[in-house]
Amino acid sequence: MSWGFLCDLLSGVNKYSTGIGRIWVAVVFIFRLLVYIAVAENIWKYELDEFECNVKQPGCENVCFDHFFPVSHIRLWALQLIMVSTPSLLVVFHVAYRENREKHHNRKLYKSLGEIDGGLLCTYLISLVLKTGFEIVFLFLFYKLYNGFKVPRLVKCDIRPCPNTVDCYISKPTEKMIFLYFLVATSALCIVLNLSELSYLIFKYSIKYYLKSYVKKHQ
Questions:
Q1: Are 74 and 44 in contact (CB under 8 A)?
Q2: Exposure letters 28-51 (e unless 16+ CB within 10 A, then b)
Q3: Which end of the chain is more exposed for a tag (fewer CB within 10 A), N or C?
Q4: Which intervals hold domain Connexin cysteine-rich (predicted)?
């Protein structure tokens, strides 16, 4: 697939993000998307062809591969990238709604279309919660589907049509495990950044509204 749309989306969201949000965009773009396109795709490109079992029984290698790798690491990583990036569309759509509203009324209704306040603040917070939720769900999926964050060198398979328990060997297990750890580390970093930004915005605007109400009360 072409990743151009995702790159354009991240670039567009960057204009309406806080400082922490811009760091998140940089991490996703440089350490996840570019690493995926430049390196990771090639490592898992021929994983089924390079999966070997010490028996030539027709169908045995296929069923063993499907059992130990129900979903390809690289496809699950791609799906994760798409899912954690799409909540940012909510912010882009909200800004587009503001632009359309100003055009409809033919006057300026907002100090700045991309300023995070009011309804846009709620949309931004929802997008952060969704991104964090998707990150956690996919980390859980990786852990459950592959019995932990590891790529074994050897797996034993006794599923039909294999005639008995056979040894199956995974190609480049160390290289794949390094990139799997890298994936988990960057995903965890993104969770920390999302939670930090969420806490920052809630704290900032709570203080802001408290001060406003305090001033009004004493006036």
A1: yes
A2: bbebbbebbeeebeebbeebeeeb
A3: C
A4: 134-201
As for how many domains the chain has, the answer is 1
Q: Are 157 and 53 in contact (CB under 8 A)?
A: yes
Strand 166-169 relative to strand 52-53, pairing: antiparallel
Rounded Cα–Cα distance for residues 155 and 162 (Å): 14
Domain containing residue 35: CATH number: 1.20.1440.80
Model confidence pLDDT, tens digit, residues 164-211? 888 888 888 888 888 888 888 999 999 999 999 999 888 888 887 777
Instruction: Determine the structural domain holding residue 178 and report its residue range.
Output: 3-218
* CA distances, 132 to each of 8, 41, 73, 168, 200 (Å): 21, 24, 20, 36, 15
* Residue 76 contacts residue 138 (beta carbons within 8 Å): yes
Q: How far apart are the C-alpha atoms of 7 and 28, rounded to whole Å?
A: 10
